[in-house]
Amino acid sequence: MANLKGIASYCQECGACTVNNQSCSSQQLDDYFVKIVVNEVIKNVYPDLKPQVESESVYPPIPLGVSNHHVHITKETFEKLFGAGKELEHYRDLYQPNEFAAKQMVTIAGPKMRAIQNVRILGPLRKYDQVEVSLTDAIQLGISPPIHNSGDLEGAAPLTLIGPKSSIYLEHCAIIANRHMHMTSHDAQLFGVEDGDFCKVRIGGEKGTVFENVLVRVNDNWKLQLHLDTDDANAANVRCSMHVEFVGKI
Question: Residue 239 contacts by C-beta under 8 Å, 6 or more apart in sequence?
Fold first, then answer.
């Protein structure tokens, strides 16, 4: 499988509509016409897609986002760390609509006084406090967080958040987020999956990898994107602004 690269994670170019037009057996001919039909559907659903590299996949490529450690916090926690009446300040938009990286950052410290500085807060503010870290981060902090879906804080590890005005100890806040894929219901229909399903994706390149147990999350307010943490991304030698290939539902 070729490595599918785009100029940015917003790029929708791919090789999904490339069809191998060689002489073939009856079964290959059936597969050929299936690809034609699927590619026509893809062109209607994703009219901006253009072939970039040859790929055998009949599915559109999935933009990749690499997620570094970050913090989601409540208004109450934010004001304790930064001062009463303070507002979360916009730094830059994220790929998903209405989500952004804030200018404010915190230090996170584990129970053994091991810390990571300059951990960015993501907005908007939420109804719960959550710190998402990689396994490498967890080892550095001296904690053992569970691998959970975002928002599931049962058994989450403790951390202390340190801001310019104060600090706060959160007994259950740190998790390693499941590798997951955001998509709309229209995308889900195209890929043949539902919210809560698990699937496989393939990444090409010098350290080509198939990732299993990728959680499917469906919401019509989202855009299609795979989220990997830095450990998974480094293992496959990938960065943002790349695309991955959908293999199938598990």
Answer: 66, 233
CA dist., res. 195 & res. 243, Å (int): 21
pTM: 0.76
Contact between 183 and 217 (Cβ < 8 Å):
yes
Take residue 91 and report the two structure tokens written for it.
């730094």
pLDDT at residue 150 is higher than 60: yes
DSSP state of 46: S
Count CB neighbours of 218 within 10 A.
19
- Residue in the structure block whose two tokens are 């695309």: 243
Whole-number CA gyration radius for the chain: 21
Taking only the tens place, the pLDDT of each residue in 129-142 is 999 999 999 999 99
Q: Please name the residues in contact with 95: beta carbons below 8 A apart, sequence gap of 6 or more.
A: 9, 10, 63, 65, 223, 225
| Cis upstream peptide for 124 (omega within 30°) | yes
Q: Is the distance from CB of 151 to CB of 130 less than 8 angstroms?
A: yes
